[in-house]
């Protein structure tokens, strides 16, 4: 029997919550990794850590606001002190930018979105470069299908995610000679609690069943369904694993075929 894809590896995940963050932690653990979980909510971290430990893997929780440089340094120090290594970093933390037209959007709100969604990911990545270089490790940025369209009110969101993609590509060029790969994953809708609540909200406003809202959204995809967190997380596991050892600077869309790229 072959070893799990991430056997013996240590993966750091930011922005761990009940949706994709939890899925990332669980799928990395199932693939054999020990995980370091970072988020602002300590109670959320504890629940996900328990699930990881029930799978037989080690989970270390570090409450972290990634917009706080000192907190990020504590996270990096904890990883070094606890494991002495890091093989993967998943920048999953996200703050929704204002959803309004660029012609009227508050520029301070746009800046705040860039701070969390772009600059904080860069800060965290820079802190982990030394240990990732030692392990010949990998970074995965969580991006978005917003890259693929230009719908009104999504301008600030697309600006932030486009910057994250550009940053990924440049870091790949800078860090590739040091043995570190840098990629990004771009999901569309993810069928998790937040989206389920949103579809219920839309259904009530329209006076239709929530399943109808789901079916209408799923009909825009080739597979006629919306990806679930573990399916998106599995794409991240691939990018972190030796199977992707020659893949860097890339953006992998995970959207059931809603957008082709």
Description:
This is SDR family oxidoreductase. Keywords: Oxidoreductase. With 261 residues, the chain is of the alpha/beta class. The chain folds into 2 domains: 10-190 and 228-253, Rossmann fold (3-Layer(aba) Sandwich); 191-226, no CATH class. The chain has 8 helices and 7 strands. It has helices at residues 20-30, 42-54, 69-83, 107-135, 155-175, 193-206, 210-218, 229-240; strands spanning 10-14, 34-39, 59-63, 88-91, 138-142, 181-187, 251-254. A 7-stranded parallel β-sheet has the order 3-2-1-4-5-6-7, sandwiched between helices. Strand 5, helix 5 (155-175) and strand 6 form a beta-alpha-beta unit. Helix 1 (20-30) packs across helix 8 and helix 4 runs parallel beside helix 5 (155-175). The longest helix is centred in the middle third of the chain and has 29 residues, at 107-135. The protein is globular and about 55 Å long. The two termini are 35 Å apart.
Would you summarize the structure shown here?
This protein is an alpha/beta fold. It is built from eight helices and seven strands; from the N terminus they run E-H-E-H-E-H-E-H-E-H-E-H-H-H-E.
């Amino acid at each position: 029997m072959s070893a799990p894809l991430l056997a013996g590896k240590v993966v750091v995940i930011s922005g761990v919550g009940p949706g994709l963050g939890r899925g990332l932690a669980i799928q990395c653990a199932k693939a054999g990794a020990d995980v370091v979980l970072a988020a602002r909510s300590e109670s959320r971290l504890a629940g996900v850590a328990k699930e990881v430990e029930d799978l037989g893997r080690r989970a270390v929780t570090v409450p972290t606001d990634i917009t706080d440089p000192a907190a990020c340094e504590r996270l990096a120090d904890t990883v070094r002190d606890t494991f002495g290594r890091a093989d993967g970093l998943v920048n999953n933390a996200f703050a929704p930018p204002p959803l309004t037209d660029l012609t009227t959007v508050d520029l301070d709100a746009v800046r705040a979105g860039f701070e969390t969604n772009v600059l904080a990911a860069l800060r965290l990545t820079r802190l982990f470069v030394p240990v990732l270089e030692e392990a010949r490790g990998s970074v995965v940025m969580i991006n978005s299908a917003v890259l693929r369209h230009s719908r009104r009110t999504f301008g600030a969101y697309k600006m932030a995610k486009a910057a994250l993609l550009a940053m990924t590509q440049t870091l790949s060029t800078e860090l590739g000679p040091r043995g570190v790969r840098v990629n990004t994953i771009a999901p569309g809708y993810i069928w998790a609690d937040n989206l389920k609540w949103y579809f219920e909200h839309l259904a009530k406003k329209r006076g239709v069943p929530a399943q109808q809202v789901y079916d209408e959204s799923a009909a825009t995809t080739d597979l006629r369904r919306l990806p679930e967190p573990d399916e998106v997380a599995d794409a991240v596991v691939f990018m972190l694993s030796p199977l992707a050892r020659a893949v860097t600077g890339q953006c992998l869309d995970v959207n059931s075929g809603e957008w082709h790229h």
